[in-house]
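pipeline/complex-builder :: batch 7 item 3
reading input block
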Amino acid sequence: MKILAICGTGLGSSFMLEMNVQQILSELGISGIEVDHCDLSSATPDSADLFIAAKDIATGMGHLGEVIVIDSIIDMDGLRAKLQEVLQQKGLL
Amino acid sequence: MGERILKLMMDILSQPAVLIALISLVGLIIQKKPTSEIVKGTTKTFLGFLVISAGAGIITQSLDPFGKMFQHAFNVTGVVPNNEAIVAVALNEFGSTTAFIMFFGMIANILIARFTRLKYIFLTGHHTLYMACMLAVILVVSGLKGIPLIIIGSLALGLIMAVFPAICQPIMRKITGNNNVGFGHFSSLGYVASGLIGKLVGKGSRSTEEINFPKGLGFLRDSSVTISLTMVVLYVIIALFAGPSYVEQELSNGSHYLVFSIIQGVTFAAGVFIILSGVRLVLAEIVPAFKGISTKLVPNSKPALDCPIVFPYAPNAVLIGFFSSFAGGIVGMVILALTGSVIILPGVVPHFFTGATAGVFGNATGGVRGATVGSFVNGLLITFLPVFLMPVLGDLGFVSTTFSDADFAVSGIVLGNVAKSFGATGVTITVVGLVLLAVVFGFFKKNKDSNNSQKLGV
């Protein structure tokens, strides 16, 4: 499984988001999930199984499939809750 | 034999791609990563640097005819500020120096956060890279060489990485409502100016978030689309002024001048797209290592993060800020056209990111009025500052593009002009003096704090 964090230029925010996702995954004791980050233009529906972005950019992501939208990239608790929910649905947790 | 080994060492150190790969190798080994990840990470960093140089070639190829057309049409130099473009071009010549300054500058940032009151770890890696590159250019032009060049550059970078987030923090606290994260994006002076102006003009103005605003400009966040569209518009306008005969005879090899311009405009965006992928590869291993090491060594530090972290706090201010800053850019351009010898064209990307952020800062202190006036001033700032930066960049002042954000310009203008008046010694004294000042200031404050807590009986 692959998770892709997205932001406008794919440099700063999405990178922080990727590192936060990785931290949460290791806290939850989940391994084997690839996490990466990129810009909005480069993201295609087949480039990952799950996409994550902050709400200010989420309107441009409708074509991507399964998207987790978080309020702010610094909100670790919100990210953890949403990530846990999706991983439970997928039976990974 | 010994000579050959020395040559090998020198050649390795003068190849920025190899150097940056070595830095990432060291980072991965320190983190005790498994061998497969060490090999993968090191190779990716190596690859990333070469990708950036490839993008630089494309950018130069697209900017060269742009500069010529502009010169022909208006008899002045036209400049499109774009960090990626200028950095990629500069890395061809200043790559090794940049890599060294970036590596030791991050260490300096950790040390400064550890031993002064500037507790900020600057995590916006691409801006660290761009600032390292800008410093490399300024300091080499000033006459510094060898080890002093690296030491002064790294100290300056470390200080810049801690000082600018500190300047933003009072308003940042107001925006986020807590003191946990810092703000790390090198246009801080524009944002703080916007915040202060908001305080001055914004009395009684309601928050931008109380108005109902049409959404739907989300596509502006898609930077490759935005760059393509703006560069095509700029290119076509300038081609119309330059005229078909000049373009077709001198530049386009006979193909239709408007078709040529559209292709060149999108080519610029293609170059930036490639550079961005390269930068992403270069930073992929370095930033997490930096984050991990800094949280271990300076546990009470605040991470300073990229500008979009403030966007969700005031989405309407983001839009108002962009439009207002862009308007400032256009007004600034007209003023330059009437007076100056260089015209700075408004780029949509810098005005979007810095204008939007200035909007959020202005809104935090002065509502709608603060956001509007504050980001307009930001637009003027990022238009006029490059005019003063370009003369101190040496040969790089002539490439039709330059650094786009305020802190690059201000740091460069200050150091560059100190260098012009007082030479390399002047720059050395200035940088070392400022670092000492930060340390001493932190020391006294610390004493005062502990005195205070003693008085309170804590």
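note: Chain A has a mean pLDDT of 88.
queue -> next item
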